[in-house]
Amino acid sequence: MAEASYSIKDLEHLSGIKAHTLRIWEQRYNLINPKRTGTNIRYYDQNDLKLILNVSLLKDHGHKISNIAKMSLEEMHEEVKKLAEKPSGFADQIYALTLSMIDLDEERFEKIISTNSLKLGFERTMLNIIYPFLSKIGIMWMTDSINPAQEHFISNLIRQKVIVAIDGQFHSAQSMDNAKKYMLFLPQGELHELSLLFASYLIQSRKNRVIYLGQNMPFEDLEAAYQVHKPDYLLTVMTSKPNGFSAQDYVSKLSEAFPETEILLSGSQVIGEDLSIPENITQIANPHILVSFIEEQVTVAAK
Prior knowledge:
By secondary structure, the protein is of the alpha/beta class. Helices cover 57% and strands 12% of the residues. It is elongated, with a radius of gyration of 22 Å.
């Protein structure tokens, strides 16, 4: 696995510390020392990134930079460990997850998730810690700040947790007369399943029925499944852009194929994009909005 390298702008994006401030710390405290390529371009390695993430976390908790700079690496790690093992601000837990991903540290990941799930419950842990963390991963991925092994490692650990939570939510909604029926799928070529899995959890936890078709669903197979189950809602997430894929064309095709059904759309290919959205389509910008939508439908059905 090639060693990751980072620009000072990468460190700024990932830590929230301005590049100008990082340069001052380099000069004043010798906190990090950039390496140089053969063409004299400055870069930082994975150890530098971990150090700056730790510094940022300690600074956010009131430690002065002058005192942090005097700490040995062992002392710094011990202070960070104390913070990570004590659920406090969500940002602390997101930092801790970032470090567990960089180090491929499953034990640390398990400790973070179990500690927060016990205190907050699984849903709040996902909404307030995991989802912001996944957004951070997205930034890291786009800036080549993490490699595929790190991204796959953490995504699969989270996926396992969501699947276990879904299994734990199985109930008698299948036989409830007033249960709403949601059909969940990803478009053909779309493989990023975490958001869809969590949507399934949120829907089932509110005693609705889910027909889960999963990733990479050919359109003709979606139509066939729809005819069998006649769901009240279709829900999909459009995150990536496979070759030849047009989000606008797909949105229009969905609307025309299922005119009697409300279609819920989420994902970066839809949210915030300048698309023409038909009347039978609702955009879901984040999980909090999905929760509100689901609960609103449950309330209407109960009246």
